[in-house]
Amino acid sequence: MKNTKNRPAPGKKKMKIDTFIVEKSDTLLAGLLSFVPNKSRNVLKAVLRDGQVAIDGKAVRQFDHALRPGQRVEISWEKKTQPQQPHGLNIVYEDQELIVINKPSGLLTVATDKEKRKTAYAQLSSYVKMENPENKIFIIHRLDRETSGLLMFAKNETIKRQIQENWTTTIDQRTYVGVVEGEVQQEEGTIISWLHESKAFIVYSSQNPQHGQKAITHYKKLKTNKNFSLLQINLETGRKHQIRVHMQDIGHPVIGDSKYGSTQSPLRRMGLHAQVLAFTHPKTGELCRFETEIPKKFLQLFVVGKER
Fold this sequence. Notes:
The protein contains seven helices and 18 strands. The protein is an alpha+beta fold.
């Protein structure tokens, strides 16, 4: 790994910036640990969190971001004055075209007739306007109010349309974790049906190809007890309420989802979290992958002695 530390011009104050050229593939945090072995892991996590690490000129906060040989990594040791992140929103990644957040449960993606202001869209819109009042945010996809996890927005309409119009080739992976009612017997499985929405905004599942859009959901059992099962769920298609309806189809509705058959709500929220989002960046062509931890409240349902 080449270290090309910035050198100040004569008479100018030395900038506290280290620059490195990547020589081998690695994750960002591992690369930083080898670049600056005199800095602790906690210090490097802090500069990542605060947006002080840039790859080829773009700030990256994700510790497991993939490094490629030839990329230029800059570490600024002076904390920049940045717009305060929206309250309750964790910005996982941001560049000139996109923002990826980890949305909390209970927050709407966009406004409804009853709620206009307390939405992820409204908070991010205010956030980008702090830098420039002309800045805007565009919705690419949505998460249900009670579903937490990774959610992506565009900073211009061209990028939004590019992703939406090429969704199947742009999106590489969408993985959720869900807590469902009952003990799922199969270790893994695939659910295929056709979904259609009623005038009452309820999505129904059918085995008739003439009744709606084809939906394919893959699941794998991670943990189970006599009351609940924790599933890893991969979407092959992205229909409205697809996971919720398909879990109802197999007789194991998502906990807290009374709309689709759940009678239990031990977490006082829906047990669904968008854990992994991977996509090809529409501007750079780079594969971007983001992963969050399984919510601790989900895992607590499977701690021995806490079974209901």
